[in-house]
Design goal:
Helices cover 11% and strands 33% of the residues. The chain is built from 3 helices and 25 strands. The chain is globular, with a radius of gyration of 24 Å. 31% of the residues are buried.
């Protein structure tokens, strides 16, 4: 009888607690991306967009909501799965975890740039993404899950980071266009016999010189058409860009040649209407990193500019005054108009 009463009390306690637990996580849309916000831990998880994600998506390292700053640390399972118009995704360095099938079944997805924080590529992460051509797996990743890239028939180049210790069954199965695989791990990662598709072995495997013999004598690595040693400096990290302002434009430069810049802007200050006046943002922060095929993405460079009447930088449109028109000009600069 006592045990029965205790069970009833426990059930009642959970029923009372459930609304509290539910209220701890709030789902919101911020600049086109949906997040589940955990106020208690000040972290955010990217979740499904009920209208499907499309085009080019940038997942920032942080978001602000209700005067609280949240670190974007996770991507939920199937978040970007089955988005027919999704073309590219940039994932911030704060993301450490990704759910299963996060990007599966995307026929138009061509490019995914993963930040330096991700610890594992989960199973079926990019399952059946036939337009995906190049993948760089960062040095923080320790495992690549089952069928992670299964069916990526256009995948040509893969860089596997130095911390990977295991690659799951059928991880790269049916990748019929595979031409170059770089594995930077000094210790040969544990694999299944089907981790790489034995039907498509005409790719070149590049590995650290000190581990050449180990890869050469280990299946399925030994199935590759050619195995070679990576020469010093062959696979490099892009240099961190520099941000400058000249001629009314924000300009990016990088010591690494041939890079592509990926940037985003956050605006500080209130930016709200008050009666017949506009409270104009007092600053804006520009962040940018560089990417290049066959290289690791650079560190992110950040620079803050102020809209002060005493600062030349505030007069973006060159009319001698600092006002709302300058913010319009800023938008044009960002959009390359």
């Amino acid at each position: 009888m006592i045990k029965m009463c205790m069970k009833k009390i426990s059930v009642l306690f959970l029923l009372v607690l459930l609304p509290v637990l539910a209220s701890a996580v709030e789902t919101v849309e911020i600049k086109g991306i949906w997040y589940a916000l955990d106020a208690e831990h000040s972290c955010a998880t990217v979740v499904k967009n009920p209208y499907k994600y499309a085009g080019d998506v940038i997942i920032p390292e942080q978001v602000e909501y209700g005067e609280v700053t949240y670190d974007v640390t996770a991507i939920a399972a199937e978040t970007f799965s089955g988005c027919p118009s999704l073309v590219s995704v940039l994932i911030g360095n704060a993301v450490t975890t990704m759910g299963n099938r996060a990007f599966a079944y995307n026929n138009s997805l061509k490019s995914v740039t993963v930040g330096d924080g991700l610890e594992a590529v989960p199973q079926y992460a990019f399952y059946m993404c036939p337009a995906l051509t190049d993948v760089t797996i960062g040095n923080a990743v320790t495992s690549i899950g089952t069928s992670a890239f299964h069916g990526c028939s256009s995948l040509k180049t893969v860089i596997i980071g130095s911390s990977v210790t295991s690659i799951g069954e059928s991880a790269f199965y049916d990748c019929s266009s595979l031409a170059d695989v770089y594995c930077l791990a000094e210790q040969v990662p544990a694999t299944e016999s089907t981790s790489f598709d034995s039907r498509y072995t005409l790719y070149t495997l590049s590995v650290p010189g000190t581990a050449y013999s180990a890869y050469y004598n280990t299946v399925p690595w030994s199935n590759s058409h050619t195995i070679r040693s990576i020469y010093e400096g062959e696979v490099v990290k892009c240099a961190m860009p520099e941000i400058n302002f000249a001629g009314g434009k924000i300009q990016f430069t990088c010591a690494t040649e041939g890079v592509e810049f990926k940037s985003f802007v956050s605006v500080g200050g209130a930016g709200t209407y008050t009666g017949n006046e506009i409270s104009s943002p007092d600053s804006y922060t520009v962040s940018v990193f560089a990417i290049k095929k066959g290289c690791y993405r650079s560190d992110t460079a950040t620079r803050t500019f102020t809209f002060s009447t005493a600062a030349v930088l505030g007069d973006l449109n060159g009319d001698g005054d600092v006002n709302v028109k300058d913010h319009v000009k800023l938008s044009d600069i960002i959009l390359n108009k």
